[in-house]
Amino acid sequence: MPITVLLVDDEPLVRAGLRAVLSAQPDIEVVGEAADGAAVIPLVRQLRPDVVAMDVRMPLLDGIEATRAVLRTVDRPPKILVVTTFENDEYVYEALRAGADGFLLKRARPAEIVHAVRLVAEGESLLFPASVRQLAAEYGDGERDGNPAARAALERASLTEREAEVLRLMTRGLSNAEIAAQLIVGTETVKSHVSAVLAKLGARDRTQAVIAAYESGFVAPG
């Protein structure tokens, strides 16, 4: 089954460019387009895309609020990939905190666009881990020891020593297979640990778990 994608951007040329790049791939299908975040929820319910590639800045409803709305109101929501002009953008970090699974630069090369969609759809690795770390360092609201609320949430999670080790490796962007090689365990074992970490942190995916790790002071983003 192909990865189905919904494109949301107020610039027709951006949508056309993304459609041309993604539709050229045999394993990706663009199933719809929208010009604003306000149209996302009905289209997601109608088309059930695997991934929504969504501009972070739009005139009526931006990518941050649209992300929150989708995750709040849609059962089994899609992966959300925010599309941005500027990498070091507070809007991008807020979108990640709101629940987006990754971000993509509008100037990205075609191969990078395709890779981002595939990686976010698979959900087994972190997209652009160094950039997420940089965003957390600049825009995270925690202190050196972490945001008190985020720190308390991490303490309540009571991660085991192995789960904490897996979370640290997740912040580095390692895939399940790479974590398994690092810890000398099976991939299925790593998947179980990752699932446990997400469940204990109340995180939707790896990106949210990594954001929680930075904001709690569990790992330093700098």
Describe the structure.
This protein is an alpha/beta fold. It has two domains: 3-126, 3-Layer(aba) Sandwich (Rossmann fold); 133-216, Response regulator (Rossmann fold, 3-Layer(aba) Sandwich). 53% of the residues lie in helices and 13% in strands. The protein has eleven helices and five strands; from the N terminus they run βαβαβαβαβααααααα. It has a five-stranded parallel β-sheet with strand order 2-1-3-4-5, with helices on both faces. Strand 3 (51-55), helix 3 (63-73) and strand 4 form a beta-alpha-beta unit. Helix 3 (63-73) packs parallel to helix 4 (90-98), helix 8 packs across helix 11 and helix 10 (187-201) packs across helix 11 (206-215). It is globular and about 50 Å long. The model has no long low-confidence stretch (mean pLDDT 91).
In CATH, the architecture of the largest domain is: 3-Layer(aba) Sandwich
Low-confidence stretches: none
The coarse overall form would be globular
- Nearest-angstrom radius of gyration? 17 Å
Distance between the termini: 40 Å
The largest sheet, given as strand count, sense and whether it forms a barrel, is: 5 strands, parallel
Q: What is the CATH domain class of the largest domain? A: Alpha Beta
CATH fold-level assignment of the largest domain: Rossmann fold
How many individual helices?
Answer: 11
The neighbouring-strand order within the major sheet is 2-1-3-4-5
> Which structural class is indicated by helix and strand composition?
alpha/beta
Percent strand equals: 5-15%
Mean pLDDT: 91
Percent helix: 40-55%
Q: Give me the count of strands.
A: 5
Query: How many separate structural domains?
Result: 2
